[in-house]
């Protein structure tokens, strides 16, 4: 490989997952170029020009429209970013011979039943966000064969807003929390995901062939739990970290008690066998990841 050629282009580098991907790439000694809003992924010509200028071997896309409820009011914008954007990145990748990594979501499923979803299960998004993310999977796959799509759920990390930070804030502000207990899934901590995706890119970075374990993968932390149970774990960690002095009660409620504009899947369980078997990824227990996350968040000064 041309030594001057940047191996990775990390798209959406300013986001929650994107930031960790950049850190992990640098820690692994992989050269990378990064972009965020200034390379608008809805602009096919801009994406293509940037790809041709830097000629990365891998394009790792963490850019997305992630405001799930707002997407009900802005379906066209959500579709442009989450649906068209991955298609543009896929076309640019095909033009320069790059591999694409992209991230999707449990929201592509309708949430029925209680069986963990496998990658081949039929999709059936319930929301504008879910439809836009499914369109992105399809447009990427139409544009190139050399892609990895990681469907992930309940993402949290040190950057930006997420459920963990929201629960800690509410524990500090409210006498009692009410959290839904009838949606079951698994959190995904950005750090081990980012580390393992970068590890994959490092192992395969010089691979220019068309063969490879490309395709869709389900990835999340180990264990199946409700948002309510996740909140109980967060409260324990917040107490241990000294972020709260007392533990306000957390009351389990039904989804119907807390209506939101975008319907959520009730069953977000992922079967994670394929990612372990075919890519050698490790799935870490959600509770252990949460404890390690608090340690990382502490080092970041418990930034909000
Ligand atoms: N968050 C979750 O719970 C969750 C769950 C499952 C899957 N996912 C998926 O995981 C991936 C990473 O999510 P995340 O929560 O880390 O995202 P995030 O924090 O919202 O970051 C997304 C980044 O993309 C940028 N961006 C938005 N529109 C863009 C555009 N048109 N062109 C270029 N950049 C643009 C954003 O910039 P601005 O900040 O300026 O908008 C932001 O820096 C996404 O594919 C998401 O769909 C997330």
Specify Rg, calculated over alpha carbons.
19 Å
Count of the domains? 1
Q: Give the strand order of the largest sheet, numbering strands 1, 2, ... along the chain.
A: 2-1-3-4-5-10
Along the chain, the helix and strand elements come as EHEHEHEHEEHEEEHEEHEHH
Which parts are unreliable, with pLDDT below 50 for 5 consecutive residues or more?
A: none
Q: Mind summarizing the main beta sheet?
A: 6 strands, parallel
Overall geometry comes to: globular
How many strand units?
12
Give the strand content: 5-15%
Task: Specify the CATH class.
Answer: Alpha Beta
Calculate the mean pLDDT score and round it.
95
Please state the structural category.
alpha/beta
- Separation, N- and C-terminal Cα atoms: 41 Å
CATH homology group: NAD(P)-binding Rossmann-like Domain
Q: Judging by the overall fold, what is the CATH architecture?
A: 3-Layer(aba) Sandwich
The helix tally amounts to 9
Q: Ligands bound here?
A: NADP nicotinamide-adenine-dinucleotide phosphate
Instruction: Give me the CATH fold name.
Output: Rossmann fold
Helix content: 40-55%
Descriptive account of the structure:
- Helix content is 40%, strand content 15%.
- With 304 residues, it is α/β, with parallel strands linked by helices.
- Helix 3 (75-96) runs parallel beside helix 4 (128-143) and helix 5 (163-173) crosses helix 7.
- The strands form four sheets. Strands 2-1-3-4-5-10 form a six-stranded parallel beta sheet, with helices on both faces. The chain has a two-stranded parallel sheet with strand order 6-9.
- The relative contact order is 0.16.
- The N and C termini lie far apart (41 Å).
- The protein has helices at residues 16-27, 44-54, 75-96, 128-143, 163-173, 190-204, 227-240, 273-279, 286-299, and strands at residues 8-11, 32-35, 58-61, 99-105, 147-152, 155-156, 177-180, 184-185, 188-189, 215-218, 225-226, 250-253.
- Helix 3 links the parallel strand 3 (58-61) and strand 4 (99-105).
- The protein has a single domain, classed as Rossmann fold, CATH 3.40.50.720.
